[in-house]
Amino acid sequence: MAPMNWNKTLPCAWWFFLLAAFPAFGQDPCGCEQQESINICYLSYEDYCGGDLSTLACQYSLDGPFLQPGLGAKLLNGQNFGPSGIASCGVSFKKLPPITGVETLESCDCDIVFVGQFPAQSPSGALDLSISNVPDATLGIIREWSALCASNLVIVTQAEANPWGYITENENINPNRPAGVVSISIFDGAFGSLADFQQGGSFQGVFTQTPPTGAEILAEDALGRPTVVLDEATNDIILADIGILCTGAAGQVSQGGAVLNNNDILACNLFALGCRIAEGVLFTDVLTRICPGDSTLLPDGVFVSQPGRYVDTLLAANGCDSIIETEVRVVVTDTTAISPPLCEGDDFSITINGTIYDRNNPVGEELLQTVEGCDSVVRASLFFAPLSFDTVRVSGCRGDGFRLEVNGVIYDEGNPVGQEILANQYGCDSLVTIDLFFEPQDTTVLDFERCEGDVVIVDDESYEAGTTTALSLPVGAGCDSVVIIRVAAHPLPEVAADSTVEVNLGEPFAFDFGLPPGLQAQWAPAEALSCSSCPAPELLPGQFPERVQLTVVDSNGCASSYSISPLYICNPYLPNAFSPNDDGRNDRFYAYFACPVEGFRMDIYNRWGALVYRSESVADGWDGFFLGKPAPAGVYAYVVVIQENGREKTITGEVNLLR
To answer: Residues 318, 423: one domain?
Structure first.
């Protein structure tokens, strides 16, 4: 394995004679740059995040601990990149000095600039991934250098890609897959093929904004949102998440120089593609459609007749490699059947290729051409459904009120017979004859009243409240005896009782749910309440029942029960001032509780928002010192967070430190 040439101590010379002129618009092809070694220039953690590798913000540079042991080792492995490697181009690293202009990058002989990620850090120590520590002016110079020449490649990600017009959000849904037909692929390359890859780490990005100048999507997440693109204005590779290339907690690229998993293949394919771009290789994507049995001529002079993707490497006019990927598709010419729903008597016809198809000529085939000029067979198959006839016969008993509505016409004892035209299963007319017959009957009605949910037992059979059941006891014609069991249902009384109530300890509390008049109430446990049958009993001092049961009964004797769970709230007392003068009185600022709490934290901030004190114990109070010195007198803000009853509660306020 080749030694790692990090070039940390002797950065490339940063002086350079200014170019006479830069192109104002577009990119100069710049010719081919066939080289044995590609120089990857990188921004170092030493220059853009304070140089402290223990800080998370300093770990995403090419010489940082998330990239150096994995991606860096693979790029400098001669078995991967170099004359004897899988990718023919060799790779060397150059640490960039302070960037003052495009000439800095030119003087370093950069082929690829790897920006890395340098997130800003908030006062609390959290990383703000939407802001980069790399100045916008520096990123603008790097983009300007890239725009000078199509072979000047930049690999950039997240907030550092903002000057290119990209906005990234933490919304990626794994896995990430190819984005369909593209001119270049990072999923199929020198290091192999993969169907998908995973983003790692706590931040997993997608692009929510791309520039109006365009971007070719190379990879997208499970919801089809872009995660890796080729910027059309600069020919640069833009990543939505640096974690795609990271090792360890931030990503899945393996440590060492070996290519072991999908993320290894993806990362090495991406930089192999970067080598080709830096060498000025031209990529073209072509879509060709052919008819079944035909063939097409590929750019290398070979005829093919099978669908698929064919890659040819030719020499372009400017002397660069030209990679042409041709997708061949065979036009589908499946037989199409035309069979509209028709009815007997319809005057329907259709003309295909000058032939008329109707009820006298319902079936045939015609040869047509697709828009691509391929033969396509169309089969006409017309079916004329006949009219149908049906009879509806229903027997009932006289006086039962039976009625049948057909086409808006009511059929009953007074109008038992008639004919109606309806649509059959084919949508055609169907003549339906209605014939109702009513037989005499002897009817007995049994009426009951019960509460909702109760039942009535009649001859060992149960009948639910709110139901009507007719029992036929046929004698002769079947209508001699009919027993109708009607069970009226009284609704259960309803009370707007909360399943959970908050009880502030030390304050009177009544279980008052506004019981409607006429309801009898029964409360339990009786020993914890001021009364057991009044509408709104009070909770007795010193009583803490886990459940309170309310049962209400209405005038029909119907009852409903409700279970109420009290949540006992223990509010602290927080003084508005204290004087840490060692006089034995009010020398510390405490949160005083009359009862125990499950969890506690108190933070105190000065007027500039700096945290001056934190305690996670109720027994601890602030003594008025900050960083070992007496804090100045004045007003301080406090935030108290307590856990009680499995819930978190935040209390804020101010305290005056007196001296």
So the answer is: no
Q: 375 pLDDT band (50/70/90 cuts)?
A: confident
Compute how many other C-beta atoms are within 10 angstroms of the C-beta atom of residue 237. Answer: 24
pLDDT (mean) for 391-403: 78
10 found inside a domain = no
- Is 377 inside a domain boundary? yes
Helix (H) or strand (E) holding 141: helix 136-148
The pLDDT of 225-238, averaged and rounded, is 94
Q: Do 644 and 597 contact (CB within 8 A), yes or no?
A: yes
297 in the same domain as 348: no
235 with 360, same domain?
no
pLDDT for 291 = 85
Q: What is the CATH number of the domain that holds 522?
A: 2.60.40.10
pLDDT of residue 32: 57
605-626 pLDDT per residue, tens: 999 999 999 999 999 999 999 9
Q: What are phi and psi of 73, to 5 degrees?
A: -65, -35
For residue 68, give the nearest of 46, 85, 84 by alpha carbon: 46
Contact 485, 462 (CB under 8 A): no
For the record, the structure tokens of 350 come out as 């259709």
β-strand partners of 654: 637
Q: How far apart are CA 153 and CA 167, in angstroms?
A: 20
Counted domains in the chain? 7
User: Domain with 637 in it: what CATH number?
Assistant: 2.60.40
d(CA 177, CA 208): 17
CA distance 408 to 129: 69
Q: Which of 364, 357, 359, 365 is nearest to 383 (CA)?
A: 359
Strand 404-406 versus strand 409-411 pairing type: antiparallel
pTM, entire model: 0.47
Same domain for 89 and 128, yes or no, is: yes
pLDDT digits over 234-257, tens only? Answer: 989 999 999 999 999 899 999 999
86 and 165 belong to one structural domain? yes
376 and 353 Cβ atoms separated by less than 8 Å: no
DSSP states of 433-445: EEEEEEE---EEE
The whole domain housing 581 covers 577-657
Alpha carbon distance 54, 285 (integer Å): 46
Same domain for 253 and 219: yes
